[in-house]
Amino acid sequence: MTSRPDMERAVEVIAAAPSLALACHVAPDGDALGSMLALHHLALAAGKRSVASWSEPFKVAPHYAYLPGLKGATKPADFPPCPPVMVTFDCGALHRLGDLAAAAGAAREGGELIVVDHHLSNDRYGTINVVDVDAAATAVVVRELAARLGWALNRDAAICLYTGLVTDTGRFQYSNTTPKALRLAAELVEAGADVHHIFQRVYETVQFAKLKLLARALDRAQLYEGGRLVVSYLLRNDFQEVGAEEPYSEGIIDYLRQAEGADMVALIREPLSDNGPTHRISLRSSQDEMDVSAVARKAGGGGHRQAAGFSSEDSLEGIIEFIRREFVLATGSVGVADAAAGE
Question: For 209-331, which CATH class?
Fold first, then answer.
């Protein structure tokens, strides 16, 4: 649960602040973008100045282009370097802010840095840490924060929050789909979120380049530990050859997760930018007993029990070896023959 003193302090600071600087993690997903933009809309409606941003590459997956306020987001180069009050969303560690980490550090030293999140692995790097590990999404925490501020929902904020909620619960299919999450979904629909439109934009509008990228990931997928572990990868050349942006890789791992008998899946990808890690790795589990966040934390990453990730400078082969070793340690598998062809 969220620490009550932290929530109360966040309400006091935000209510008194004439302006807010909002940021989410690099390569933002639906919950990060939706949570940040929702508070941005509500702050503007409350008469506050507000800017919202994320690190370079300053792009998002095309299926989030419908989000209200996205086109008005502030480029990271124009983000205030020393904001008196800065709020971060869905970001578990300072370094995950990328280009905006310096601004967050300055806010922490000279003002207030409010961290709003729901990840168990959150570093609590703010001066105020509103972290609710029981929440289905950061969007849930933002809704509670807005309610305590006395800020009524508007249509734009409802659309953004619903996006965060529906994506982080896997269309309300993951085990984090609680009664509280469903009640919030109903409230957001009543406030103007169009369920059908959001579903179409997020899940049924797929660029052809993404389909080609998906085909490469599926073609490379390998089974290990008797089919209980699925691993695939995407190279930088793959993105370039099919004409895909890096955000197009979002959601591909969910196709791998559908493999029959798979307890854990991993997607390794080479980022297009040279300013970052050599590889980014996403992990998913299909069983409550398999905690992929524990695997990610061993490599300096984090996330949820069933969805996590980390970055690595190791080789592709070294990363696969690490994932296989940790899977065996986590599940107690010993000597199970690989199902991968040729192994």
Answer: alpha beta
